[in-house]
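Repro:
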Amino acid sequence: MVDFHAFDGRLTLGSPRAAVRRHRQHSTRGGTVSPSTGQPSRSLLRHPDFLKLWTAETVSVFGTQITLLALPIVAAVILEVSPFEFGLLATIEFLPFIFLSLPAGVWVDRLRRRPILIIGDLGRAISLISIPIAYQAGVLSIYQLYAVGFVNGCMTVFFDVAYQSYLPSIVDRDQLVEGNSKLEITRSASQIAGPGLAGVLIGALRAPFAIVLDAASFVVSAIFVFWIRRPEPPIERHDEATGPKPSMRGEITVGLRYVTGHRWLRPIAATTGTSNFFGNVGGAILILYLVRERSFTPELIGFAFSIGSVGVLIAALLTSRVTGRLGVGRMLVLTSMGFSLSILPIAVAPDDLLFAAVAASGFVGGLCGVAWNINQVSLRQAITPLRMQGKMNATMRFIVWGTIPLGAISGGFLGGIIGLHDTIWVAAIGSLVAFVPVALSPVRKIREMPEPVGDDPPLGTYPASA
């Protein structure tokens, strides 16, 4: 259960508290007035630049579903790698999230976002297309898959952090919720339809050639982002009169201290990081287990994943309503308990129920994971000062995604030592404790989403509580 970017946006149009006041002041019976134009806000379905961004994201996320299934299939079936080598593939792909997340947060705040998005798309397309070329030439190896995974991971770090900050550059402040909701529904739909479609394509084209379609999707995404015409706000330059420009190391330190010293952010990071670790202990070898020991076909795996992902769409549609009734804190505790239990069905299922168990695990994990993320990311945005948003997001991503490669390499190591099924048991048992940090923290007492904070703290300071 990883942090997802659709609801991980940065609010950049002035002070968040002031923006809320402006939104309330300009509310009308027929809609809202844009704070930037003074005119009634249009639906984003009539916003050409948002439609380009939405199209780019839609094409990209559907294409990505192919590689998510095809790359491990290539490793397991064509290259016949060991469990350790298989787990190392996922580990290498996420290493950039350990080494690059924190500086990426600073760099993205210093640069324009659209060129970063375009370079990230094209870079991933070039690295992916090398796989079918090498396969056709008879020289494809696990080491090339490692290289592709690492390059794609580096590009994805910068793309995701830039993407979080780009949406507020092309839509008005009062349109962010609508924009994020539409992007999340697209992502949810890709998780439902994508794996099944990917399984069929892999079965028809063979995995290396199916990856060509994902490479093409990144090129199409880059073209649509390039066509966006709304200019980004100018980069805020450092005022020398206020003192020397903060170093990157200093800004990274501020972000780390802010997150680890916050009474709400700290347990949220602990719960998400723990879930990611144990989830990837099992996830790193799950496809290998299904293919080698239970003779699942790519089509069957893709179908099970698609059924399970229905929970993602349900969460995207209903989370706001359910949170309003239960409260933010209760919702966070209940959803964390749900995804903590989600691996258990796969561990306990007999062979004749394993397909249903994989689908059920995906359903519960998707339902609870997305509902958790919608609430915890919204909470993070609400309580964090505007100038800290980028560093906070990068720090949270460093912590909660940094455990992914550690879990993946642990899963690969354990799979080779104790066996694949026993490794899934380790993941299932370990995941049971993921909900504990947030359940025992002050987060559980939050009833309503806090209003955004106003002023930024001085650089180098951070609140111990919110």
